[in-house]
Amino acid sequence: MTNEFLLEAINREFPGAIISSKDSFGMLTLEIKKEEIKKVIHHLKDSTLQIDFLTDICGVHYPEFPEKELAVVYHLHDMRTNYRLRLKAYSPKLNAEFDSLTDIYAGANWMERETYDFYGILFKGHPDLRVILNMEDIGYHPMLKEYALEDGTREDKDDAMFGR
């Protein structure tokens, strides 16, 4: 399977679903409309394309882009041909909700819980969406870039030692 073949196959089956595409070091990366992402992934698995393995689901926070502040990234793999694919879908932080893939890939369960835990992204239809790695009463999502990385009140740190 080639990147061009897969891109054409998705465009033919879901016209207008692909927002952008690029080839990153030989891996096809597609930005898919949020409302189409589950349909596209379901088609990739159950059609003759048979992309049968969900390698990873993760979140990304882009605070500088309010309309695309949160992203969910899906890494898929065809185990027979060793073909890999990356799909991305974006959402504003206020409406960060995606369809769950647990009914397509059982392994999505823990990956979606981790993404929810660290980024606050909700997955509609998830059977048990709750905190998995953080304390239940933490009150925030630690991977969101909303907090200062360093404590500005520290006096015991010499910035010259850190190249500043």
TrEMBL record:
Residue ranges annotated for the NADH:ubiquinone oxidoreductase 30kDa subunit domain, each copy included: 31-151
PROSITE patterns: COMPLEX1_30K
One Gene Ontology MF term: oxidoreductase activity, acting on NAD(P)H
Keyword Hydrolase applies: no
UniProt cross-references to InterPro entries, sorted A to Z: NADH_quin_OxRdtase_su_C/D-like, NADH_UbQ_OxRdtase_30kDa_su, NADH_UbQ_OxRdtase_CS
Keyword terms, alphabetized: NAD, Quinone, Translocase, Transport
Cited SUPFAM superfamilies: Nqo5-like
Domain of life (superkingdom): Bacteria
EC identifiers of the protein: 7.1.1.-
Catalytic EC class: translocase
Pfam family, any one: Complex1_30kDa
Reactions performed catalytically: a quinone + NADH + 5 H(+)(in) = a quinol + NAD(+) + 4 H(+)(out)
Family: Belongs to the complex I 30 kDa subunit family.
Protein name as annotated: NADH-quinone oxidoreductase
Taxonomic classification: Bacteria, Pseudomonadati, Bacteroidota, Flavobacteriia, Flavobacteriales
